[in-house]
Design brief:
Number of helices: 8
Order of helices and strands: HHHEEHEEHHHH
Radius of gyration: 19 Å
Length: 206
Amino acid sequence: MGVLLISETKLKAFTNINKNVDMDVLKAEVQIAQDIDLQTILGTKFYNHLLSQVSATGNTFNADETTLVNDYIQPFLIQQAYFQAIPHLMYRSMNRGIVEGMMENATSVDIETMKYLRSLQKQRADFYMTRLQDYLLIGRGQNKFPDYNTQSTIDGMIPDRTQKYNNGIFLKHTTRKGYSTRDIENRGLRVYSELEHENPPCQDCY
């Protein structure tokens, strides 16, 4: 198992995962949330840079990295790891196959209820994902992390800067928050356009 950026205490404190759930069940889902979801946001180079500074005795983050990890990455990972874990809390892989986990004096929910609960959890995770991207792209974290801003495909995955916490309706010249991008630019303010920073660029948006 690789380096994990969140602890068992934090994962259980900020979700409704029961404290008696074995962390061995959850570690793999935290790792998946990091490798698939967080690495997609940060890019391989910056992701590996952060992991390389964590050891069993602590970390060597600078002040900006500490703020990024504690205030933005960890809240996202907590919610995303729980999203990834929900099916595996309901079903377990055993010697005799995949079985439905049952607790004494408790009844498991049906699969449709599980899907509904997972969709709610996905909304929470997506909110914290967008919050993390906002911090890196247009917030106080922009231009503070060279390994985030200077990546290429040679390094591995490049950061996905496309924000996905929105609905399926496209309104031209409008940001996710509803303001007119053009109007903001005319006022002399800096603005981040999701369309301009998509990689690859959106071919159908103009």
